[in-house]
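just leaving the lab so this will be short. what follows is a protein written twice so to speak, once as letters and once as structure tokens for the fold. can you read through it and tell me how you think this chain folds. anything you notice is useful, everything is just below:
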Amino acid sequence: MAQWKDVVYLINPTPVKINGVYTTDLATSSQRKCVGNHQGISMKEFYEAAALQLRPEFKVTLRRRDYQDEAYLKWNGAYFKLIRVTNSENEEFVTFTCLRLPSSIVNS
């Protein structure tokens, strides 16, 4: 496995009730800093996701001990939804397929 060099922030948003409506704000939710490996998406993965009208941008691999069932991550200032989680054979690592969130969703 390549050197652990990419810093990501795992996010577990907390719903907040504003004017009787529950919402989440990823930008102000608690974030945990982790180090992992950024990888590209294969052509097969890209087309399988496109069939579901999804457009994943990359995958990131982290150590399993760093993952606590978060649904989002921040990388290079952008926010992403974890749309697929794959465990390694020895379950020491976990790989996420990431879908970029529009900025309009981040603060809603």
